[in-house]
Amino acid sequence: MDVLRLTLRQLQIFVAVARSGSTTAASAEIALSQSATSSAVNELERLLSLRLFDRAGKRLLLNDNGRALLPRALALLDGAAGIEQMSRDGSAQAQSLRIGASTTIGNYVLPKLLAGFMGAQQPGSAAAWRSKVVIGNTAAICDAVTAFELDVGLIEGPSHQPELVITPWLQDEMVVVAAPDSALAQSSRAGDRIPLRTLREAVWLVRETGSGTREATDQSLLPHLRSYRRSIELGSSEAIQRAAQEGLGVACLSAWVVNDALEAGRLCRVSTTLPRQLRQCHLVVHREKQSTPALLAFIAQADATAGAAR
């Protein structure tokens, strides 16, 4: 077996500098002096016989070599962290998971999925369970999985990041809704289907760029509307739902989000000439992620949930 020249500490320092862009900022993160951090970077480049950074004043910017090394370094550090966790607690590998979910899935689908997952664990294992759940927009979840900050992500929109394995999961229906006393809702209750020319003049309540809901609505609506002539951008589906209830505009939201409000009469489904709108949700993991019993069990539970919904 060849003697390894690299150390995990060198890779940890490399990752910190790559993320922060300077040895000064990285040194604070990893509890080293600036000079020691700089020396560690230089030593790593010497060992590899490769330049990993372009120097621009005090800034260190990843070059092609550094960009190629970064995902491999992250994967190695993630695996090492798992080994250390096992040394602290023999059951940790089987009982620890970092889960990310897009906002709608996190609020309306993940709780039931986690309940099924926990119920399927061996008796007594729940006592040792430690998990982390992060809820954010699709782009943020994919970024965290790519950086090995999360083990698995459940997202509402597509991902375009080559580092990820993207598996189709649940399908979600997108529903056009408005306040019950709005003109659009009243016309729908009278049996009319709202034409495109009327929808183009409406105020649309939309999510922020990077949200899976925004990407889904853009893909389904903009080919027909051409643009949102009047719109209000809000940071969550719940905020959009509340704004629609107050009559601020019309929205296209997940059926998971609006079902309760529709049943309670706080919102009205608007019948339109648009085709039925379905969006594909996905499960994402990093290509270099080492599978653990907990990760495999969670993916199996997610697959079972999707199978039951078909």
UniProtKB/TrEMBL annotation:
Domain of life: Bacteria
Keyword Nucleus: no
Keywords: DNA-binding, Transcription, Transcription regulation
Domain HTH lysR-type: 6-63
Gene3D superfamilies: 3.40.190.290, Winged helix-like DNA-binding domain superfamily/Winged helix DNA-binding domain
InterPro entries referenced in this protein's UniProt entry, alphabetically: LysR_HTH_N, LysR_subst-bd, WH-like_DNA-bd_sf, WH_DNA-bd_sf
Keyword Transcription regulation: yes
GO function term, MF aspect, one: DNA-binding transcription factor activity
Family: Belongs to the LysR transcriptional regulatory family.
Protein name: LysR family transcriptional regulator
Organism: Aquabacterium lacunae
